[in-house]
């Protein structure tokens, strides 16, 4: 694994200011790789964990 592999994640993670983080996924942009989930969405899951699979591989 190289820095280049994580560059997008680091940019979206925005460690300098976590309140300025922006997700890249939306209904209009389903190709975006980064999506935020609210606390309520996470605890409403069958098993409360962070193993969230929402990306779909192209067929």
TrEMBL record:
Q: Which UniProt key words apply to this protein?
A: Methyltransferase, Transferase
GO biological process assignments? methylation
Its EC number(s):
2.1.1.72
**Enzyme category, top tier:** transferase
One GO molecular-function entry: site-specific DNA-methyltransferase (adenine-specific) activity
Query: What is the protein name given in its UniProt record?
Result: Type I restriction-modification system, DNA-methyltransferase subunit M
Organism annotation: Methanosarcina horonobensis HB-1 = JCM 15518
């Amino acid at each position: 694994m190289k820095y280049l592999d994580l560059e997008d994640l680091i940019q979206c993670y925005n460690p300098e200011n976590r309140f300025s983080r922006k997700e890249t996924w939306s209904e209009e942009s389903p190709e975006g790789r980064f999506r935020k989930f609210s606390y309520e969405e996470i605890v409403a899951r069958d098993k409360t964990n962070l193993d969230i699979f929402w990306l779909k591989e192209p067929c």
